[in-house]
Design brief:
- The complex is a heterotrimer of chains A (about 350), B (about 550) and C (about 220).
- Chain A is α+β, with helices and mostly antiparallel strands.
- Chain A is built from seven helices and twelve strands.
- In chain A, strand 1 (about 90-100) and strand 2 (about 100-105) form a beta hairpin.
- Chain A is elongated and about 95 Å long.
- The two termini of chain A are about 45 Å apart.
- In chain A, about 40% of the residues are buried.
- Residues about 305-340 of chain A have low confidence and may be disordered.
- Chain B is mainly α.
- Chain B has a single domain (about 35-540), classed as Cytochrome C Oxidase, Chain A (Up-down Bundle), CATH 1.20.210.
- Chain B is about 65% helix and about 0% strand.
- Chain C is elongated, with a radius of gyration of 20 Å.
- Chain C has about 220 residues and is mostly helical.
- Chain C has a single domain, classed as Cytochrome c oxidase, subunit III, four-helix bundle (Four Helix Bundle (Hemerythrin (Met), subunit A), Up-down Bundle).
- The chains are: A alpha+beta (about 350), B mainly alpha (about 550), C mainly alpha (about 220).
- At the B-C interface, helix 6, helix 7 and helix 8 of B face helix 1 and helix 5 of C.
């Protein structure tokens, strides 16, 4: 079953490799089987006539030709990988929280599902995912996508479904007793059907409105004023803007940055602000609370004139401009099963 | 090649000293090789028993044999026992120990007491692991990923990890012994490029033993530390990084898979020339390829983390290196095949296993090319495709080569021949059973069936039934040699010093060999596999 | 001056020289495994040091630089006395060998004594990781991480020191029994290699744990 925009290219690469490898394997099998039959030992004392046992040209040939074949495979595989890892700018944002042993998906407008996700066909969908406990992996075979979901940080993957239908969702990283039960369905619907489904859904608030409630409940509004007079930065226009940190560096204010600010406030300090004011919410907010707050901050819109950069891939977007270094941060202990020996 | 004076030997390494203590306190590398042989055989059948249970359980989509907790323990223990207590020691510690001194014309390894100690350390590690098993088992997968293994699992993680930690020192001791021996104890005239490829491959294996195993040791120790003292080295809640564990674990475990295949390649490199009566084609290329596999094998570990959270740029680097490491293996396959062309091909059991290895290792290795392709790996990683890939290499490759080597050197070790007809039949059963077990798993993986699943959607059942059918045939194929080899030890036909008319130094002495291996130290004047040069002595042509 | 202690060439070796070269090679390979063993910890420490520079700086500032420096001096001196011990074995001076071995062991024990004093001090200051850890400042878990590595790595090193002292005890016994001479001193040389290696590891440990805090 191939039902995503990358599945086609995947299939091409896969079957090309099957043909190439199959051809070479068959050739080797022919040489071996032919030799075993044609040169089968006829008497115990038989000694074949002495022949050269090396041939530098042959060695060079069967070193260099495979090298170029392999480089071709590498290049094609890498190109496909970039396509898989780079979401387009207009992707529909979906948040996923994994826990032992279920998938919780949330869309910006508030649609929440357990072990399933409804999406429209032909629309790029970007998943921002985290785990509440151990490592899981979000796997939809029909879309040819998979991404490990880690505790303590966000990872992301995207897809564009090309055919309506329902497709398996599996957890693909062993996560304990009910690992094989952590499965579900992705429902791909025609656009109109999807809109219909959204409207029919429970009249819960959108993620952003839930986030707004939290923003006031936890006292964020006391310091983060919108008129620029508060002790803390104005969050309007923050999302996906470039933040100047104390010390001269800059960072992209993406989801990972916001999450880190909530759980590890001292990791970064915005230039011009006191580094000790922001409380640590590690023990008070769940991963889902964080997602709601992010949705709220996102809804505060871009500052006039700033450009939104789309995250280039799963890992780099988490780290802003820090080259390749991950900040695991601290997920809340709230939903964690106590460790046992 | 050698100038030994034939002197009638009255005792050999088996008969020279008798009694249980003479075995438990031996420093004779040949006896130690046999001690390991018994141990790894026992572990193989324990690990195999778990596999049987797993395959029975997977006959039905919801599984009725065991509950999910037990299934999770089964695949974990199967992996731990097969990897650390069978595959890694199997060829080096049994055949390597037995043959390396003989192949280089030495009386023993460089450090015989260290060799004995390595067996005891191995057995201690095995005992601790089995204790963890008996107490209730461990369910983290053989890969011990954190934070599941450090914080969430309620099973005997520390026990199992400590058992593996201890057994790792056995590998390190063996590696030190082999390297020092090969460097310093070769017979006069035996230059590096006259060495059998078996020695080159075991040298490369030993490089990995000494450099990679300590990293596993410290990683497992850190997991134990975290579990025992509840400090967060790999726990995100306490600032730890679970992906760091994966990097450290695979830094060892990828080279470890080369530890499992290089000795198998060593065996095949000995069998094919003898059973083709031609020198190995491209000796220098094959020798250097062995070392290249070991060296480049240290640079590819990140291909286990393509979807785990490593950066796109790291992933590209590791994918590139993974393709590079495939090249020396390909070179070997081509050279082995070329060795057979215009040779005199015997169909005796060792050669059947070697030919089987050629086919199955090639398939397994080629599916590695699929996994190295970044865009393909996203889909097939963590599925049965990977399971099939590594079983093709480790079972279709390493175990077949191990059986081939056991049969090839059985006459040397025991002085007796095994029953050829029954042995050929067993080889065929193993080959057929193996393919029926594991080929359907490539399809399962491509279709999306994840690994480590105790239950699965109905549409995958047919392929699982095929796989289980194959496993039952494969099991028969493994039990048969166990029976007839034991029988042959006592009742087999006398083998004589060189039943295969091989050129290696080990065949220039009696079967079974005397305790000191050679009556006089051989002096080497010929290259390896010199059938033409030795045709008088071997009564060939 | 006992010169009768000729090399005890084991049966599987053909000459004393082959035995000595092989044993020395074996020891160097063993030291390579030790480099990889500690290396894993150094890599992990470096990763976390890069993640949490401030917390690790705080941790490092809590180290006792005076005791650490004394320990470094003690251990380097002991490497010197050990090297001299190896030399005196090689020139066939058993009395000097015995004396220098004893001095080396004493210095090793002083090192261990100071180390365990430091461990206890940290325990009293609630810096020992686990249930005993208590730090009121920000990023407490990351400061704990620093001490996890401190205890783990220096503890592993201390274990190697204890083994080293044990090895020297055995060498001392054999030296006093007259086993070594100008013609045969390989075990002393190998013990010396091990001792120097453990010393070098300490120098790196000192740098990463004690010296970062000086900048904060």
């Amino acid at each position: 079953m191939s039902a995503s925009s990358v599945a086609g290219e995947f299939n091409w690469l896969f079957w090309t490799l099957v043909v190439v490898c199959g051809t070479v394997a068959t050739a080797i099998a022919c040489v071996v089987i032919y030799s075993a039959l044609r040169y089968h030992r006829k008497n115990e004392n038989e000694l074949p006539p002495p022949l050269p046992s090396n041939n530098i040209r042959l060695e060079a040939a069967w070193t260099i030709i495979p090298f170029f074949l392999f480089m071709g495979m590498f290049a094609w595989g890498a190109k496909l990988y970039f396509d898989i890892e780079r979401p387009p700018d207009d992707a529909l944002q979906v948040y996923v929280v994994a826990k032992q042993w279920m998938w919780k998906t949330q869309q910006l407008d508030g649609a929440r599902e357990i072990n399933q996700l409804h999406v429209p066909v032909g629309q790029p969908v970007k998943l921002l995912m985290t785990s509440q406990d151990v490592i899981h992996s979000f796997y939809v075979p029909a879309f040819r996508i998979k991404q490990d979901v880690l505790p303590g940080r966000y990872t992301s993957i995207w897809f564009q479904a090309t055919k309506p239908g329902k497709y398996h969702l599996f957890c693909a990283e062993y996560c304990g007793t009910k690992h094989s039960g952590m499965i579900g369905w992705i429902y791909v619907m025609e656009r109109q059907q999807y809109q219909h489904w959204l409207q029919e859904g429970a009249a819960e608030g959108s993620l952003a409105s839930d986030g707004e409630k939290l923003f006031h409940q936890f006292g964020c509004a006391n310091c983060h004023h919108f008129d620029g007079q508060g002790r803390c930065p104005n969050l309007q226009g923050l999302f996906h803007s470039t933040v100047h940190l104390a010390g001269g560096t800059t960072v992209l204010a993406d989801e990972a940055y916001i999450r880190r600010k909530l759980f590890d406030p001292r990791a970064t300090t915005v230039e011009g602000y006191d580094k000790d004011v922001m409380p640590d919410f590690s023990h008070q907010l769940t991963e889902e609370d964080v997602i709601q707050l992010i949705a709220y901050i996102r809804s505060l819109g871009p500052a006039p004139g700033s450009t939104i950069e789309s995250s280039p891939g799963s890992t780099p977007s988490q780290y802003g401009n820090q080259p390749g270094i991950a900040y695991p941060g601290a997920p809340p202990i709230l939903n964690r099963t106590p460790g046992m020996r | 090649m050698s100038t030994t004076v034939a002197v009638p030997v009255e005792t050999n390494y088996l008969t020279e000293k008798q009694g249980i203590l003479s075995w438990l306190l031996t420093t004779d590398h040949k006896r130690i090789g046999l001690l390991y042989f018994f141990s790894v055989t026992a572990f193989f059948f324990v690990g195999g028993f778990f596999a049987v249970l797993m395959r029975l359980h997977l006959l039905t989509p919801q599984g009725v044999i065991v509950g999910p907790e037990t299934y999770n323990k089964l695949f974990t223990m199967h992996g731990i026992i097969m990897v650390w207590f069978f595959l890694i020691p199997s060829i080096p510690a049994t055949l390597g120990n037995f043959l390396i001194p003989m192949m280089i014309g030495a009386k023993d390894l460089a450090f015989p007491k260290l060799n004995l100690a390595s067996w005891y350390v191995f057995m201690l590690g095995g005992a601790v692991t089995l204790w963890a098993l008996v107490r209730g088992g461990v369910d983290t997968g053989w890969t011990f990923y954190t934070p599941f293994s450090t914080t969430y699992s309620t099973t005997y993680v520390v026990g199992a990890a400590l058992g593996i930690f201890i057994s790792g020192f056995s590998s390190i001791m063996t590696g030190i012994n082999f390297i020092a021996t090969i460097h310093r104890m070769r017979a006069p005239g035996l230059t590096w490029f006259r060495l059998p490829i078996f020695i080159w491959s075991h040298y490369a294996t030993s490089m990995i033993f000494v450099l990679a195993t300590p990293v596993l040791a410290i990683t497992l120790l850190m997991v134990c530390f975290e579990r025992l003292f509840q400090v967060g080295i790999f726990d995100p809640a306490l600032g730890g990084d679970p992906v760091l564990f994966q990097h450290m674990f695979w830094f060892y475990s990828h080279p470890a898979v080369y530890v499992m295949i290089l000795p198998a390649m060593a065996v095949v490199s000995e069998i094919i020339p003898v059973f083709s009566r031609r020198p190995i084609f491209g000796y220098t290329a094959v020798a250097y390829s062995s070392v290249a596999i070991a060296v480049v094998g240290f640079l590819v570990w990140g291909h286990h983390l393509f979807v785990a959270g490593e950066s796109v740029y790291s992933a590209m680097a590791f994918s590139f290196m993974s393709y590079l490491v495939a090249i020396p293996s390909a070179i070997k396959v081509f050279n082995w095949s070329a060795t057979m062309v215009k040779g005199s091909i015997s169909w005796d059991t060792p050669m059947l296993y070697a030919i089987g290895f050629l086919g199955l290792f090639t398939i397994g290795g080629m599916t590695g090319l699929f996994l190295a392709a970044l865009g393909l790996d996203v889909h097939v990683t963590d599925t049965y495709f990977v399971v099939a890939h590594f079983h093709y290499i480790m079972v279709g490759g390493a175990v077949m080569a191990y059986l081939g080597g056991v049969h090839y050197w059985w006459p040397k070790i025991s002085g007796k021949m095994y029953p050829e007809g029954l042995a050929r039949l067993s080889a065929l059963i193993v080959f057929l059973g193996f393919n029926l077990t594991f080929f359907p798993q490539f399809v399962l993986g491509f279709l999306g069936m994840p690994r480590r699943y105790a239950a699965y959607p109905d549409e995958f059942q047919f392929l699982h039934v095929l796989s289980t059918a194959g496993a039952s045939i494969l099991g028969v194929g493994y039990v048969l040699p166990l029976c007839y080899l034991i029988w042959a030890w006592k009742y087999g036909k006398e083998a004589g010093p060189n039943p295969w008319r091989a050129t290696g130094l080990e065949w220039q002495t009696a079967s079974p060999p005397p305790a000191q291996n050679f009556d006089t130290t051989p002096i080497v004047t010929r290259p390896a596999y010199d059938f033409e040069g030795m045709k008088e002595e071997l009564h060939l042509g | 001056m006992a010169d009768h202690a000729a090399a005890l060439v084991r049966e599987h070796f053909s000459t004393a020289e082959q035995q000595r070269e092989t044993e020395t090679l074996g020891m160097w390979i063993f030291l390579a495994t030790e480099v990889m063993f500690f290396g894993g910890l150094f890599v992990a420490f470096t990763v976390y040091r890069m993640y949490y520079p401030q917390a690790f700086g705080t941790g490092s500032a809590g180290m006792n630089i005076v005791l650490g420096s004394i320990n470094t001096a003690v251990l380097i001196t002991s490497s010197f006395t050990m090297a001299m011990a190896v030399h005196s074995a090689e020139v066939g001076n058993p009395r000097l060998l015995t004396l220098l071995l004893i001095v080396t062991m004493l210095l090793g024990c002083i090192f261990l004594g100071i180390k365990f004093t430091e461990y206890y001090q940290h325990f009293l200051e609630h810096r020992m990781p686990g249930v005993w850890f208590d730090y009121a400042g920000p990023a407490a878990s990351k400061v704990q991480m620093f001490f996890v590595f401190y205890y783990f790595m220096t503890g592993l090193h201390a274990l190697h020191m204890i083994v080293g002292v044990g090895v020297l005890l055995v060498i001392l016994g054999r030296a006093m029994a007259g086993s070594f001479s100008a013609g045969y001193s390989t075990p002393v040389a190998m013990a010396g290699l091990y001792w120097s290696f453990v010393d070098i590891i300490w120098v790196f440990l000192f740098a990463i744990f004690y010296l970062q805090g000086l900048h904060v």
